[in-house]
Each structure stands twice: as C-alpha cells, then as structure tokens.
Description:
The chain is α/β, with parallel strands linked by helices. Helices cover 34% and strands 26% of the residues.
Amino acid sequence: MGDRAAVVGAGITGISAAIWLARAGWRVTLIDRGRPGEAQQASYGNAGVLARSSVVPLAMPGLAWQLPRLAADPGGPLFLRRSGLGRLIPWGIALMANATEARARAISAVLARLTTDAIDQHAALAEGTGPERHLRRGEWLWLYRDEAAFRRDARGHALRQAAGFACRPCDMAALGRADPALGPAIGHAVAYPDHGWITDPGAYMAALGQAFAARGGQIVTAEVVAVAPGRVTLRGGAELAAERIIIAAGIWSRPLAEALGLRVPMISERGYHLMLRNPSAMPPVPCMVAGPRVVATPMEGGLRLAGIVELAATEAPPDEAPVALLRRTLRQVWPGLVWTDEEVWMGHRPSTPDSLPLLGEIPGAPGVICAFGGQHVGLTIGPRLGRMAARIARGLAPDIDPGPLAPGRFARRGRGA
Length: 417
C-alpha cells in the first residue's frame, strides 16, 4: 500500500494533518461532507482568535455551585435545553470530577503546551501557500464593566499568568481613542500581548484546502460511515484503503471512534456567531466581553460576535435566545454601531469533560489515529494537533508528551477522566 493516509474531516485539524503528511511525501486523501471552509464546519464559524492564553479549563473549582445560576441567567453565556439531556448528564458528572484545584492546574498546564506556539504553528502551516494573508498579530483585549468585575475573574487570570501569559491594564482614554464606538458600559480593560486572529476563517480554510490539493492531495466530498484498520467506508458502500487513518471530524468523530470500541465522553457545546457586514466601526483587535463571554473580532467581511455555550442535542435546531444575547452585548458595548447586513451561524464545539483533545492511536485499532476534541480552542490548536497526528501516523513521537491526550484515558480513569 505504501505511505497512503486518509484523513476524515476537513476542518483545521484535519487539513493540517493532511498538509503535513503531504509535505512528508505521503499520498493523502482528505474526506468530508463539505469542502474545506464551508459553513457546516466549526472552522468556518468560530471567533477567529488564536487564543494562546486560553489555558483555563471548563471545569473549575466551584462549578457545581455556579451552574444553576449560569443556567438561569439570561445574560450569562450558558444555555441549557432539555434535548439531549440523556447524554449531557453523564458528561456533566465527569466534568464535575475535574472541577478541583489540582485537576484545573494539571489540565491548564497541558493546554498551555498546546496553545503557546499557536501563531507560529499557523504561520508554519500557511507559509508560502497564500493562506498566510489571513493571519494577523496583535493584542487580545478583555473588557469589563469595572475593576471589581475584573477582580472577580482573578482565578482565570492567575492560571494564565502561571502559564506565562501576563496581562496589562489598559489606559481607558487611549482605548477610547483606538475604538471610538466603545460605550460607557466598559470601565476597565486588560490586554494580553502577542496573540493573533484569522481575518476570514472560511477563506483561510478554503485556501489551505487549495494548498493541499496543489501538493497532489486528493479531496473527496462524501460522508464517512465507518472506519476500520486499513479501510474507510463511505455512504453508499464505496471503500478507500489507507495504511494510516486519522479521525479529525470534530463532534462527528464520536460515532466513528465508538464503533471501534473507544469510550468517547464528548458532547457538542454549540456556539453561535453574528456577523455584521459593513459596520460603521470595528475594534482594532479582538475583544472578549468578559461578563457574557462574547468575543468581537474584526474581520475582512465585517465584525464577528461569537461565543455562547448551548448544551443541547447535536441535531436540535438553532435557538433565538443565544443570538439575542449576542445582540444585547453588542448594544451594551458598542451602542452606536450600525451595519448593512448580517449572518447568523450555529456550530458544534467537540468538548470532553477534561477540556483536552483525544490524540493517538485507538487501542485495538492499529493505524487508526484520533485527533479531535478541541472544544473552545479548536482553531487555536488545530495546526499543532494535526501536525502531531501526522507525526504519529509516520511512526514518530509528538514533540510534547501525548499521555494526557491518550484516547483510552477515559476507559482507564472512569467517569471522572
């Protein structure tokens, strides 16, 4: 068969794995229901931020006491729908088992190893191929109502500082001059230096797909219904043979991996974006509005507001309430903004109860490699995760310890993994 690989999933992790394998001289087939950069992919609709400092896990100490308040708060970032509760409950129990000081510190340290070089990983992936024009570097602003609200966020900022990411307080007068549309609801802000963002995630992904094809990579538009060692089965019965198979299909990876006997306690944290076309103003760099955890990112196509955690069944239709929160946040923070047109989008973050992706060969399925579960940092870590998956496919060790990301860790540790 030779050095032939199949990559299932054309999001940022999958396209990264495919490109790095192609650069190593492998014959690679990339398979997805849509082309790279199309709207059904989380890589299309994310906030676009390369959030190097996103090292705070979802499960933090005190989460059990905060969840009821968050779920009941219409101005908060969490929306809970009854659909899909059967799967959400065991995932939530496993999540709570990670909500300790020791686990939060341990998980944060692993996340830091994945996120710290994110901008360099994107630059290496895109170098000389055209997609690099969509990469920007700059600060990552966090906006607060006042200094007291910032102090209440101290635990997360402390984890970031422990990982080497120190923020600086902003001069509010200078911030107002840089962003004249910013309203009086924001009284305090801090900046994390040396971050980045993608100015058009969809176009960036499409350009990466074109770069892969230019290297001789094959892109197959089809639905994968089963994976087995040496073989990928498509809807309709067609089969593709491959020496190595990388599953990098986000939330859709779960049934493929579970059919091979792997326990995958992963749910969709559904996220939304509101894209404003031709806005009257835009912030110069990405901003996190800290209360509702809404991100505002300046892009080539306009201003994108994104975020929200909606826990619901994967197949449930989009809801109006999360989009309404995005609109309220916009009006509170940039009250005078106007625009000509808008796009609303909903997608799926593949989230594990320990906030870490699955990376490595599936036990009992030689040659089948997991590379999924990027949760809120999927775009940030995708090039690194895909590059490490490509190394594993080639029989090489990743450049960081893959142990905490092992696909079989949930079976070993049980519910609290």
